Amino acid sequence: MRDWWNRRRERRRAKARINNNPPLPGVYEVEAGKLARLVLVAAPADVRAIGVRLNVAGGVPLMRYVAHRADALSLEHGSGPILDRIDQVWGSIGDWGRMGHAQRPSRRRDPAA
After folding, report:
1. pTM, 2 dp
2. pLDDT tens, 95-112?
3. Most exposed: 13, 58, 68, 74, by fewest CB within 10 Å?
4. Nearest Cα to 17, choosing from 101, 113, 97, 111?
5. Which domain holds residue 52?
6. 54, pLDDT greater than 90
């Protein structure tokens, strides 16, 4: 019974994460999709390259937006959460290692603005 309850709770959490992560504007949605796929195929160099591009474009806030969106996309496809893997690869990029993904992004629509 406990296993059933835990699986149900995880499905509900996953659904909430998906619903709370609307698509990002333009190129950032594309980057989130790439990130979700690359983390799953274990391509850390490519994941790091995306992190570096996002850091240059908007710093940790933009990186956080895209990481959470990639996590939601991964959950939509039934692949499970990927934030911990992203955190490991992006640990030394800009201020990410100090701030990490623990904070949820604000609800601002355009993180690059």
Report:
1. 0.69
2. 887 765 545 555 555 555
3. 13
4. 101
5. 2-99
6. yes
